[in-house]
Amino acid sequence: MAKTVKAIGLMSGTSLDGVDVALIETDGETVAVFGPGRTYPYDAADRALLARALEDARGLADRLARPGVLGQAEQRLTVRHEEALAAFFHAFPQHRDVSVVGFHGQTVLHRPEMRLTVQIGDGPALARGLRALTGPPGPALVHDLRAADVAAGGQGAPLVPVYHQALVRSLPQAGPVLVLNLGGVANITYLDGDADPIACDTGPANALIDDFMTARTGAPIDRDGAAAAAGRVDEAAIARLLDHPFFALRPPKSLDRNAFRDWVAARGGLDGLSTEDGAATLTALTAATVGAVLAHLPRRPALAIAAGGGAHNPTLLAMLAARTGIRVLTAEDVGWSSDALEAQAFAFLAVRALRGLPISFPTTTGIARALTGGVIALPNGAQ
């Protein structure tokens, strides 16, 4: 049996809301202890810089290039992650003996059909800062976790299903379970007993809603789904938007954060809707795209467990239940953490990378065989 170690995961998601830091104790196959988790929000200037970086990344053909503001954004992102770790260790000094840190970085472009995925974030620089925070010898840091899968012809996403599988194995639930991550993009992991997990991105989630609310109100989110709850869904717009060829594809499949922005702008008719009706329509679109993937699964799930920022949106959860006909619980309902789950997953993946265990699979990313991944920055500066 492999040794259980302390591992920290760092996640900056497509919603651009902040740095999630979470600690678990794991051997990369099971989770022995859920440690603390914290979110360190970006300020408005950080979010604006990252939004500009997303724009400048749209024309990238070289995953190592940092044109426009991308270089500046990468530097600031790395500093913000180091500051988040410093705050975390200040709050929990007993965990400075962490063995490994999984650093996701910030996805600014995801084009697996071009064998291209770009996560900004300076792994070696963060590893040096991490050693200064913990004292020598310092933990290993695993970064650039998607690149190997995409280079091998995989989708590079989702990467978290192997962690979902470890968690679901501890539940008493009978029948297939759907773990639903509602970040900037929505993705699912379908788990049924000992069968390999099936996973894919399903469509937009918070990204479109957040961008719409920012443009209409200046607030970066529809807090608690209040605007959507007060609005009316434009069902004709939903039908037009679901006509996108992505929804007819079988898993595995993945999306860039902005994959549907132009499609929704051209076909959604949001300019003619009130803020409340637009928010309701975009929220219903997320629910409808999750419903659309059900036809591609082996059996109908008995339960959906929602995590990510969207799990705090009761309007979205109600629409998911109504449009899928599946019982929907939150991560908290089953003893998990909606906010920490994805960061925990990257801690788990980092341990698997250190052990040479696979982090992506044919049924989750479409690669030919299970594959490990990640670049390991060791405390002495070696890669």
From TrEMBL:
The residues that hold ATP are G13, T14, S15, L16, D17, G18, V19, D20
Catalyzed chemical reaction(s) = 1,6-anhydro-N-acetyl-beta-muramate + ATP + H2O = N-acetyl-D-muramate 6-phosphate + ADP + H(+)
User: SUPFAM superfamilies recorded for this chain?
Assistant: Actin-like ATPase domain (SSF53067)
* Top-rank EC class of the record's enzyme: transferase
The record's keywords, sorted A to Z, are:
ATP-binding, Carbohydrate metabolism, Kinase, Nucleotide-binding, Transferase
GO MF terms, alphabetically ordered: kinase activity
Q: Which InterPro entries match?
A: Anhydro_N_Ac-Mur_kinase, ATPase_NBD
Q: What is its EC number?
A: 2.7.1.170
User: Pfam families from the entry?
Assistant: AnmK (PF03702)
**What is its pathway?**
Cell wall biogenesis; peptidoglycan recycling; Amino-sugar metabolism; 1,6-anhydro-N-acetylmuramate degradation
Record function comment: Catalyzes the specific phosphorylation of 1,6-anhydro-N-acetylmuramic acid (anhMurNAc) with the simultaneous cleavage of the 1,6-anhydro ring, generating MurNAc-6-P. Is required for the utilization of anhMurNAc either imported from the medium or derived from its own cell wall murein, and thus plays a role in cell wall recycling.
HAMAP family from the xrefs?
Answer: AnhMurNAc_kinase
Instruction: Say which family it is in.
Output: Belongs to the anhydro-N-acetylmuramic acid kinase family.
Q: What is this protein called?
A: Anhydro-N-acetylmuramic acid kinase
The scientific name of the source species is Ancylobacter amanitiformis
Q: Gene that codes for this? A: anmK
